[in-house]
Amino acid sequence: MARPIRFDLTRRAVLGAGAALFAGPGRAQVAPLSVFAAASLKPALDEIATDWDGPVALSYGGSGTVARQVASGAPADLVVLAATDWMDWLGGQGALAGSVQAVAGNRLVLAGPPGAAALTLTGAGIAARLGPAGRFAMGDPISVPAGRYGQQALETLGLWSDLRRRAILAENVRAALAYVARGDVDLGLVYRSDVRGTGAVEVAAVPTNTHQPIIYPAAIVRGASPQAGAFLAHLRAATPVFVRHGFDPVPAA
């Protein structure tokens, strides 16, 4: 059963809701634009929504969870995921209107707790860091794109068969990073953008040629508010914000 996803209102949304309480009976109230998004996008999308001229309600979760909830009729106007295959699946459910457009890219890294030293991305290097009984955290490859990219990378590097039993599989990549930042585990396989501002540190970069390209696709949901298209254009114009939060620009076609 899909877990409920987090629901946040941006500052503008809160202000908009507050203003509505004091609006006269003859004044129209603007419903917040509802955006469902992958958990790894939270820092960047929170900032981008603040620059939008209107209330925005942002809901975050693992891409698989978000896709299933939108397909089940969750009240979303726009959806942004961390993997094209989940967006393709959502399109196959008849949930989307218009074309799918990429808004950002990303990279994988191994992260460690605050102060952790760099390591060599080899079986021996990881084994030395984890010790005989240590575990590492990553998103669940079944539903979390970062976990699936991570499994692909570890398989390419010949490390998955030894490490799979030591993995703690989290419901989304931000939850995997939380294990690392709290010092519960010595390593986490997460997005580079996730590491910033958490206290965790990048200890090794994962080569981009070991897994599928990491692309964030966005699409308008069928029956969406007319403002959804304008907000999608706002997202596509926000590359500097994404880059500042550790994402990559969308690769040239």
What does this protein structure show overall?
36% of the residues lie in helices and 23% in strands. It has helices at residues 11-22, 42-50, 63-71, 84-92, 123-130, 145-156, 160-163, 173-181, 192-195, 228-236, 239-244; strands at 6-9, 33-38, 56-61, 78-80, 96-105, 108-112, 136-139, 167-170, 187-191, 201-205, 215-221. The strands form 2 sheets. The protein has a 6-stranded mixed sheet with strand order 1-3-2-4-11-5, sandwiched between helices. A 5-stranded mixed sheet has the order 8-7-9-6-10, with helices on both faces. Strand 2 (33-38), helix 2 (42-50) and strand 3 form a beta-alpha-beta unit. Helix 3 (63-71) runs parallel beside helix 4. The longest helix is centred in the N-terminal third of the chain and has 12 residues, at 11-22. The model is unreliable at 1-27 (pLDDT under 50).
Helix content: 25-40%
- Overall shape: it is elongated
Classification by helices and strands = alpha/beta
Mean pLDDT rating: 88
Distance between the ends: 37 Å
Work out the radius of gyration: 19 Å
Please tally the β strands and state the result: 11
The largest β sheet comes out as: 6 strands, mixed
Assembly state here? single chain
Number of DSSP helical runs: 11
One letter per element, helices H and strands E, the order comes to EHEHEHEHEEHEHHEHEHEEHH
- Widest sheet: strand ordering: 1-3-2-4-11-5
Q: How much of the sequence is in beta strands?
A: 15-25%
Uncertain runs with pLDDT below 50, 5 residues or more? 1-27
